[in-house]
Design goal:
- By secondary structure, the chain is mostly beta strands.
- The protein is about 0% helix and about 50% strand.
- It is built from no helices and ten strands.
- Strands 4-1-10-9 form a four-stranded mixed β-sheet, with no helix packed on it. Strands 3-2-7-8 form a four-stranded antiparallel β-sheet, with no helix packed on it. The protein has a two-stranded antiparallel ribbon with strand order 5-6.
Length: about 130
């Protein structure tokens, strides 16, 4: 019997969001391609575990997916930070049961670094920008 629908699978991804000095960033939103999101805790950790996730980035036994961290609280917790994206090296830990079941894919200890984009600017002199 043919299968109908879109390819889905189970994902388990986890890690930390830190600043460029290695300090944890709480309150950042982390999103996996085509799936749910999580918000980092006080230690900057996050985890996404989703069954029946749609992620077309998994094919041919390899998955080239991304996670993105976004500063959602602005100046709180040291921001604002621009978003940062990391390409994953997911490992298939369980095979799928059919052409639409992509199986289970996992990666842990993913570190996403957010760099503060605040810059000290020199004061203007005589109406000219430095």
């Amino acid at each position: 019997m043919p299968e109908y629908g879109v390819p889905t699978g189970t994902i388990h991804v986890a890690g930390r969001v830190v600043d460029d000095q290695g300090a944890p960033i709480p309150g950042a939103q982390v999103t996996f391609d085509y799936a749910e999101f999580d918000t980092t805790d006080a230690e900057g950790t996050w985890a996404l575990n989703q069954e029946n996730a749609y992620f077309p980035c998994a094919n041919g036994g390899q998955a080239h997916c991304t996670v993105e961290a976004e500063d959602i609280d602005g100046p709180a917790n040291g921001g604002p930070y621009p978003p940062s994206e990391v390409v994953l090296n997911l490992v298939q830990t369980e095979p799928g049961s059919g052409s639409w079941d992509q199986g289970t894919w996992e990666q842990e200890n993913i570190e996403i670094v957010l760099t503060n984009n605040k810059k000290e600017s020199a004061p203007e002199q005589d109406g000219e920008k430095p």
